[in-house]
Design goal:
The chain is of the alpha/beta class and 170 residues long. The protein has one domain: Rossmann fold, CATH 3.40.50.1820. The longest helix has 13 residues.
């Protein structure tokens, strides 16, 4: 299995153990990592049976003012931004311990401005790759309703009641 972690995170796959398919033919990613998993699959020449997207970073419905505010806050105080970001990922539930890596402003910019391509999703699905999207109904980070509507024609889409961005229910 190939797995991609979320923005500023490492070793976060344990949050998704009950959903992850442990197979050599599975590619998965969480949030920003979902973008990386999707991009990987577009160029991969090896067999892939399943693409799992956990709380995919879906900001294409958010206004530019929101994206600019996020970028300004990050540039002003990166550590404070990341702390508040991770806390927001766990809302409305209790914050849990996560492992982190260094981040770049370009990564946040990519995350906020990424445009999911419906034609490429359709192409992947037509090649026999099963696409699964997992969303938390209480996710305070992404546009859950927009993501559900966008991915539904191409993927088996699960909305987990009471779950946050990490798909956790306390």
């Amino acid at each position: 299995m190939v797995y991609y972690s979320g923005f500023s995170l490492k070793d976060d796959s344990s949050f998704f153990e009950k959903y992850l398919k442990q197979s050599d033919y599975n590619v998965a990613g969480f949030s920003y990592g979902a973008i990386k998993a999707f991009e990987y699959i577009l160029t991969c020449k090896e067999r892939i049976d399943t693409l799992q997207l956990f709380s995919p970073a879906f900001f294409q419905t958010k206004p530019q003012t929101f994206k600019r505010a996020q970028m300004m806050a990050y540039k002003k105080d990166k550590e404070k931004y990341l702390s508040q970001f991770i806390q927001g990922c766990f809302e409305p539930n209790e914050l849990k311990k996560t492992s982190h890596i260094s981040t770049k402003v370009s990564e946040l910019e990519e995350l906020l401005h990424y445009e999911w391509d419906s034609e490429k999703l359709k192409e992947i699905a037509s090649c026999g790759v099963q696409i699964e999207v997992y969303l938390g109904s209480e996710d305070k980070i992404i546009d859950v309703a927009g993501a559900k509507e966008f991915f539904l024609p191409y993927a088996t889409t699960y909305v987990i009641n009471g779950a946050n961005h990490f798909l956790q229910i306390d």
